[in-house]
Amino acid sequence: MIAALILVPILAGLALYLLPRSADALAKWIGVLIAFGAFAIAIGYNGAPDESLRWLQRPFTANFHVGLGGLSYWIVLLLSLTTGCALLAMRVSRQRDFVASMLVLLGTMTGVFIARDLLLFALFWDFMLIPVFLILVAWAPGKSAGSAWRYLIYNLTGGLALLLATAAYGVVEGSTDVIGLAAGHGATAIGAVWGIWIFAGYAFAFLVKTPAWPFHTWMPDTYADLPAPAVAVVSAVQSKAGLYGFLAIAAPLLPDQMREATTPLFMIGLIGLVYGGLIALVQDDAKRVVAYSSLSHLGLILLAVFSGNPIAIGGAAVYIVAHGLFSAGLFLTIGQVESREDTRLISRLGGLAARNPKLAGALTIVALAALGLPGLCGFAGEILILTGLYQAGAIVATVIALVPIVLAAAYMLRLFQGFMHGPELADIPERKDMRPLEILALAPLVIAMVLLGVYPEPVANVSPSVSTISLPSAGIR
Amino acid sequence: MPPFVMPFGTSDWSAVLPLSVVALTPLLVLLLDLILPKAMRRGAAVTIAALGLIAGGLLALQGWGHPFAAFGGGFVNGGFTIVFEEVIVAGALISLLLATHLGRDDQSGGAIALLLWSASGAMLLAGAANLMTIFLGLELLSLALYCLCGLSSRPSAREASLKYLILSSTASGFMLYGMALLFGATGSVQLAALLAPPASTTLFTLGCGLFMIGFAFKLSLVPFHVWTPDVYEGAPLPVTAFMSIVTKAGALAVIARFAYAALPQPQAQAILIPLWILAALSMIAGNVAALAQTDMKRLLAYSGIAQLGYVVAALAGTTALGLRYAIFYLIAYMFMNLGAFAVVALLSREHEEGSRLSAFAGLGYRQPALAAAMTFFLMGLAGLPPTAGFIGKILILSSSVDAGYAWLAGVLIVGTAISAYVYFKIVRAMYARTTGADIQRAVKPASLLPWLGVGICAVAILVLGLYPVAPSDVLPLVK
Q1: Can you tell me the distance from the alpha carbon of A464 to that of A269, in angstroms, rounded to the nearest whole number?
Q2: How far apart are CA A471 and CA A474, in angstroms?
Q3: Chain A residues within 8 Å of chain B (Cβ atoms)
Q4: I need a surface site. Which of A19, A90, B113, B338 has the fewest CB within 10 A?
Q5: For B190-203, how does the pLDDT look when each residue is reduced to its tens digit (9 = 90+)?
Q6: What residues contact A206, with CB distance under 8 A and at least 6 apart?
């Protein structure tokens, strides 16, 4: 039952409210069990037969149609893995309610990636905003809830554009059960008049969600305010929904519009790439460093998606998973520092390595993966993307894309040095090094980073069932 | 001397049997109110009224599949009428569950009787197919409501009652003048007779315009909406809940029948354009005005203005599917809206309605189940999945796009985006961390009956969201 990957976490999350408020530990272990259980079950379902149930017949055909394969398979694995790891070593108040929200988030985000029907995709796309909004409202520091509003209004506006585009697609095509169909299925039927509007709706939603410059302003606050386990999952997976949408929906269904949009989208990607890298260099808040570095990395993936080159697109798939792994790792490690020292400001910290060698080691590995050290996952994605961009003839873009990769080394090492090296600050309370559970929570992510770094091939050759890209090479030459 | 013959046969009377049952039940309620001891009156009145409504609803179902024009076309009984009658009965029933807040104990019998009379007026509107029946139904609906609005002892109640009386009568005046002009232009009071090209186009168009203004007032479409928030705020909670759905259903039935079945074809679309513009204005202005509200009843009043805008937008282009989707969304709105009212009822104390927004602060920690239900209703009103509100919006969007009114779909999207802030403001209040000081103690509700309403509405919204069934066989409307 692929659909169980959606239903079980959501129902279990709601059922947690039946537990007494004090059953925090039990709630946590239920959450961990369900997340890792989803991981274990999903592993066996690669390419399993789709499941479908009739939903609407008029005004267009829509089905509860789910399937697991191609890129969505790897993202679902990433999602359940990061959720499990995030819950394993969390330190959050009102744990029962938090786990409940995280499980609903797990179920709804799984729904986004395994939906094979545009309307079902839109349903989960909007649904997954609710748990994050509730987490922001109930757990963000401060009382203003500014980040919650920014998150909700930005993403809901995108979601509504997506909804309108889906309705229009359904009316024009007669069916929304089209995700994963062969490339170019809808291209002939959708005329220029509707196609451009439908593409605009989808592209807007995807760019806001990614987020790409200039729609990114909701992201730094959201990431800074979410508790570490939540931001690990949101940055690792929810931000990939937009890129996944471009690959799995826009490219196969609206190839002509996708091709026409190449130049502006390249510009957006390039600006985000450089801008995010530069801002990350000067942030004091470690979470904001990672947030802006995400803007930079996701800009690179956006370039790859629109390059139309198969190598670059394979690289995009690898980097989507890789960024998920190392950004989750970074946010979890920063969360562990913060839970010890009550701060995550680079200027307020220093010299932690002496007392916390294991923590220093963990941060080293994830930071190296993030800055693209060969042998770890970040490098595998970057080199494939750059090779593909070069092959596609986008020489200028390739050269510009090299700059932020250098910047990544600078801001990641700055973060590491600020935390771990330098004089020990006197007013920092002395705390214990990583607990075994915290090591256990990071270990699966680190193992996956190494595995993907040395053997990226299965991800790079994502099955054509979900993302068949057949764009002629285009781009900035 | 010829024998006396009843002018109408049994089938004429059986067509209006459901609404007759609903209209006669109050007599029983009033009788019991006289003979029962004080302590039992409210319970007895609610029970008898509920049974009467259920009987009316079941009797209405019997006419399904046998469309019949009763009383020489004055009352048309068909799928359309029955669906609206069921909506009215269901809306009245759920409002009745909140009736623990309806006036003092010694008033409750009379109040419940008035509620049922008002509902029977709406049911008459559901089937009314000539101008006389329409006016009769509308006045029956409204007269009972004027009294009900003034029921509570608060000063705002008197204001509400008077305001409603004056403004509503003015709107009726407009509508009557419109009816007179329509009669003048066509020489008939039958809606079916309007289909023939009129003798005088100017007279006819003017008549249509005035007629639509009258019903835009009843539907509280912008700019004929200003009475709504004040009246909703002043009226007792069950009456507000009742008005928010039953009045709207009755008025919508008339306007839909008029738009679909009573206009000569080439001119119809042009005559109706003002109606779509009113819908667009309502979607935007209703949601914008709701932003600033701090009282739940006022907030739901403005939100209702916008929601009815969505419903009317579904009719744009007067396609058959559009009518079905308008009805679907009306049903979804009924459950979402009445669910929210039921939650407010559960937050109310004996003499104070829990409609201030501050009553919701920290509710997620005091009463998690109630807060979860409220979140679900608000998600529905905001059009978020997995609710009937989400699927209803999708259906309306596709019917607007299909009918060539893509601009209306765009306006709907903008309105929905604004409404997210309105509804999630309440969600935020319920779940935001609050200091002990601003959290009220858990309220012990005066009655547990509204919980039944919460349950019914939540289940209905979820089921309709996952398995949407829009009623079929709703056309034709006049014959």
Answers
A1: 25
A2: 8
A3: 17, 55-56, 58-60, 119, 122-124, 126-127, 129-130, 133-134, 137-138, 143, 145, 148-149, 152-153, 156-157, 160-161, 163-164, 166-168, 170-171
A4: A19
A5: 988 888 877 778 88
A6: A158, A241, A242, A243, A245, A246, A250
